[in-house]
Amino acid sequence: MKGLRIHGFGFVVKSLLTAGAQTVQSAPLFSMVVQTTLDRLAKKSPIQMKCFERTVRAKTMEMFRLHWQAGGHWRTICSTSRQYSTRTLIGVNKAGLVGSLFSANVVTAEDIAFCLSMLLEDPHFDRLCAIHALLVYADDRLCKQRNLPAIIRLKENLRVVNPLTGLYLWAPVPHSLAIMQDILYTIEGWMAVQVHKREQCRDLIESYSTQKPPLNVGPRMRAGGMRN
Prior knowledge:
Blueprint: H1 2-7, H2 9-20, H3 26-44, H4 46-68, H5 74-77, H6 90-103, H7 109-119, H8 125-136, H9 148-158, H10 174-210, H11 219-222
């Protein structure tokens, strides 16, 4: 909190994002720090809390876009470039951060749809890994009815087959196929969870609507019954 007062939201968020992108395992920790900060700010100033939340969301999306856009940073350090190194995984870690912040209710489903559409622009192993990391740290709310179009589009893209080789464009080799299958299994699991939640909600509504309303008891009845 002292850092926020001294440096401002922008500097602190940028520092947190840099630290959070060092390993993919950092994503939950990063989201926990963000959530704790939001909770503390909410008690002190709801306006500051909203400002911090907007800053985290904006800086996260900017970080993701700069790395994964066409001609972005990922091209120079991707796994098929000459500069392949541990820095190659930073883009995957950034995708994990986005998914984790969705689970923390900072990044929206619309933001996730934007990130997925950007990753789907170019079939590449690194981008497949980024999609996987993003979904690993997200949750089943991405498969709510209103969010399904982006997820269905993702599934359709991943299942495109190269007509010349008969192999998946996104998974022409065994290790990429394993990652793709895990993504699809995750989505199918989320869809099943959402179906179950909708059924539970429907059952609850039906149960509530079929309950008989309590009889209205007048003051004379409460006083000891009706008098002749």
